[in-house]
């Protein structure tokens, strides 16, 4: 699954054909539309397949003002996007590996940090719940 500005990505037609679930956006797409599509399509994709793990590329070139992405997502929208993805993964007991990428503004580092803190504060990342085991004899 990939969510992207259809006018700039992907430039490689073979790569584009390899994307099974394309969520193509237009220039200037804002939070409301973006977040609705992310939530709908993450759920939809996970209704089609049950992966052993989700590899989540959490790009920030979607941020308003980014010189590459061409979208208009607010810092709060990026934080909410990550929360949506992690919440859905957690609700389905699917481990998730998040990598950060893209984002060509100095402020993206702070937004990524704020998102990680939010995920931690919501209990979506951090220490795994303690398992109780009977002692082995």
From TrEMBL:
GO MF entry, a single one: histone deacetylase activity, hydrolytic mechanism
GO (cellular component) term, any one: histone deacetylase complex
Record domain Histone deacetylase: where: 5-116
Signal peptide from the UniProt entry: none
Catalytic reactions of this protein: N(6)-acetyl-L-lysyl-[protein] + H2O = L-lysyl-[protein] + acetate; N(6)-(2E)-butenoyl-L-lysyl-[protein] + H2O = (2E)-2-butenoate + L-lysyl-[protein]; N(6)-acetyl-L-lysyl-[histone] + H2O = L-lysyl-[histone] + acetate
Cited Pfam families: Hist_deacetyl
Gene Ontology terms: biological process: epigenetic regulation of gene expression
Organism domain of life: Eukaryota
Protein name per UniProt: Histone deacetylase domain-containing protein
């Amino acid at each position: 699954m990939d969510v992207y500005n259809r006018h700039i990505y992907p430039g490689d037609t073979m790569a584009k054909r390899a994307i099974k679930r394309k969520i193509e956006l237009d220039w200037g797409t804002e939070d409301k539309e973006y977040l609705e599509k992310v939530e709908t399509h993450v759920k939809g994709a996970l209704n089609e397949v049950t992966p052993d793990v989700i590899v989540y590329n959490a790009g920030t070139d979607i941020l308003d003002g980014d010189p590459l992405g061409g979208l208009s997502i607010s810092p709060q929208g990026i934080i909410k996007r990550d929360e949506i993805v992690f919440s859905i993964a957690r609700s389905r007991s699917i481990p998730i590996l998040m990598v950060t990428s893209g984002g060509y503004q100095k402020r993206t580092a702070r937004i990524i940090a704020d998102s990680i803190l939010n995920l931690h504060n919501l209990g979506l990342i951090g220490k795994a719940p303690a398992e109780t085991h009977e002692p082995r004899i």
